[in-house]
Amino acid sequence: MLEPDSCSNCLAWGLLFMRWCGGCNSFARPGPHSPCTGCRRSGPLRKGYCRLCWCQARTQAATTGARAESLLPTLRHHQLFFAHMAPLWERVARPRLPKYERRGRPRKPDPPPASPPGGWLQPALFEVCRDFTGTDPDQHAGPDNPWLAWARHTAHRLGENTVWNYLNRIRPVLIPWSSGYDHLREVTRDDVLVQLDALHGGQRQHTLIVLRSLFRQAKKNGTIFKNPTSRIRVGQREYGILQPLEPEHINTSVAAVTKPADRLVLALAAVHAARSGAIRRLQLDDLDIGNHKLTIDGRIRRLDDLTLHFALEWLKFRRRRWPDTANPHLLINKITALGTGPVSGVTLSEPFRGQAATLEQLRVDRQLEEALVHGPDPLHLAEVFGLDEKTAIRYANSARALLDQAAEQQLR
Question: What number does CATH give the domain 247-406?
């Protein structure tokens, strides 16, 4: 068992594995110990000084900006410290080289910060659309304009990040081509298709987009004569089959929400498949309790008994907690009750954090359940939930695949 003790070399206090702390064990060198030039204590030395003197010199160098070695002869005292803890000179933030300088490339210097000109300005009498068809940007743009200089610098930096991302994406493609070809003009359409056939989903789309950019620029510069990626379609992204949530996951999320507002959010997502943004935008006028109607993003839905119960519970709590608020939104909290804005997205998702069934997964599960119960009909899903045609087809395809799997298992 480790016990607190003082290092016999640097006097640091802490839990030690032996007589010396870890820093002194790394500092020690083979050979006889000699008196330190600064404190005259006998021990391992580096350039004539012990580790305690070096620690004090580095501490002073971190605050003064001088070199630690130059401060060694001027030491008149020592500040003790705890073992296995970062000293002051290690806690001071050290400047880190930019990514491009670490790779051996000089970074383009930043232009002076752009700022509007000072002094008095004549306001415009009326707005007029400007016509730049008769100007040449290369000849008429003022090179001393700070706004233009900063815009060019920002565009340059954005282009360099983009180039590195593109090269990292097609590096696995260019390496096999470089072993068999001497020039890009030797790459054919079949070579591109072979590389794309080995990829799926977003990787295939991104790789094709990068190859198009590469060969388009090469053809523009006259490096190649024909673009092998022309007329190769990206195609639609392949999605997997949506899976319904397990009942125990839903029950865990239901048990996790205890506040009236959170229970109403749960009902809106799990029963009405409302998105987080739509829930935040709900107004008090969207809730028609007398006619049992609820308007979500302009679509009128029937107010079921469960949602009605949670809505009445929340309205009672809201009226008791903030009776004089002027916020027209249905959901408010202690911050938005003082204004007229909606609650944040974190306010809705925080109660479901760490749960297997999150707010978004509950919404997806509700739409998938509708497709499984009423049949995989995209028109029905679009009419009930206001989905676009591609999203409705995706839910219908997933429901059809799940129904086919269930039928096959029954036959077996």
Answer: 1.10.443.10
